[in-house]
Amino acid sequence: QLRWQLPKIPDEITFAGEKVEFDDLDLKERLDYELIVNNYWHSNTYITMKLAHRWLPEMKAILKQEGVPEDLIYVAIIESGLRNVVSPAGAKGFWQFMESAGEEYGLIINSQVDERYHLEKSTRAACMYLKKAYRKFDSWFLAAAAYNRGMNGIQRDLEAQQVNNFFDLSLNSETARYIFRLFAVKLIFENPEEYGFVLTEEDLYPPYKTKDIVVDKTIESIHEWAIKHKVSTKIVRKLNPWIIGQSLEVKPNNK
User: Fold this and answer.
1) Which of 13, 11, 1 is nearest to 185 (CA)?
2) How far apart are the first and last CA of the chain?
3) Please, are residues 181 and 148 in contact by the beta-carbon 8 Å criterion?
4) Is residue 174 within 8 Å of residue 144, measured between CB atoms?
5) What value does the mean pLDDT of the chain take?
6) Mean pLDDT of 96-101
7) Helix (H, G, I), strand (E, B), or coil: what is residue 92?
8) Contacts of 16 (CB under 8 A, 6+ apart)
9) Is the dihedral of CA 51, 52, 56, 57 positive or negative?
10) What per-residue string of b and e applies to 180-192 under the rule 16 or more CB within 10 Å gives b?
11) What pTM was computed for the model?
């Protein structure tokens, strides 16, 4: 007789250097919910695990360079599943930046390029946001929650409720779940077989083999440029999803 096995809830977890114990009934049940949801959403979890093998090494290296705890990589996973998706509100890319926030953190967004789709630049922009939130709240939990709720929203909640940490806050359902979703994904991704996910090396998506080409003058036609370099437009866009227009202007002294 087939019986589904419920995921095991740990006694504690360390996330971004901060330890949380699950002897509190509320915290335990909130983690239990997210573990069950993510553990049995097999299609999404498997595909994201496959993609993680392609993208996470570079992203983790950027977080390390920027001084952001590696565990914050799971923000991108729960935001987008490591796909260049567009939310109903218009947030885009792995890190789901709205246009105004993307521009605030240095991303170029116009009719030709949208750097919310640029892996390195969007990851660095996300690091800038998370570090700013950490400086404000002195907690990576609150910094991550602010990525969902906004820094001003979290600040208002803390002041109105007269508490100083994420776990004592009464929040909207999405933000209340956010940290526990991070916990659940971390547990599953770091202990896949324990949670029923078995992948071989052959199952994982390999990193793309690429080469850098310096573009020092305006490209009038992406299609013609691709033909000149003996590659299809499809490949140019797949490897450079931030190029969204039919041309690419290179301004003088632009590096």
Assistant:
1) 13
2) 63
3) no
4) no
5) 94
6) 96
7) strand
8) 69, 71, 72, 140, 141, 144
9) negative
10) bbbbbbbbbbeee
11) 0.93
